[in-house]
Design brief:
5 strands, single chain, mainly beta, 160 residues, 14% helix, 39% strand
Length: 160
């Protein structure tokens, strides 16, 4: 799908039959999947003030995954439609970069990333296909105890 700006005014009498429908963003149920990295990018966001932290602009890395195939799901959950997407973020801290480095190393199935720049790691990950076990970790939501946060956890399954 391209991001070319279209002349929507000229398309008012056209159908959208030739336009593919966008994939859904989902929280995949626990299970095993074939995943592809569709995007790996740097993001800037506004952090809310909290305690002694004044908030403000922060950076993080986001990996967006496309589900190529559902291999198995836990319980009676239906398979996730192929093409569905979800993402994972890594904070722009030394600890966050450590987790990112480990994730990319596992996705690419390499032992070492010594001498490889952050930019090269991000570019290498894009398009990578791998198998993974997905679990969901719930944590308390201080704003609404009846709606816990759901965090997708990914365990890359090394190829045989």
């Amino acid at each position: 799908m391209t991001s070319t700006n279209l002349d929507l005014a000229a398309m008012m009498e056209d159908t959208l039959d030739a336009i593919p429908e966008a994939p859904d963003f989902v929280t995949p149920p626990p299970g095993t999947y074939a995943l592809a990295v569709s995007e790996c990018k740097l993001e800037t966001y506004k952090a809310k003030p909290k305690g002694d932290d004044a908030g403000g602009d922060r950076q993080r890395l986001r990996i967006t995954y496309t589900i190529q195939q559902t291999t198995a799901v836990a319980g009676n959950e239906p398979p996730v439609p192929d093409g569905s997407m979800f993402s994972e973020t890594f904070m722009g801290t030394e600890q966050g970069l450590g987790f990112f480095k480990k994730r990319i190393r596992n996705i690419l199935n390499v032992e070492d990333t010594a001498g490889v720049s952050l930019k090269e790691l991000m570019m290498s990950a894009k398009g990578a296909v791998f198998n993974a076990r997905v679990t969901i970790k719930q944590s308390a939501n201080p704003n609404d105890p009846n709606k816990p946060y759901e965090n997708v956890q990914i365990q890359v399954v090394a190829p045989e």
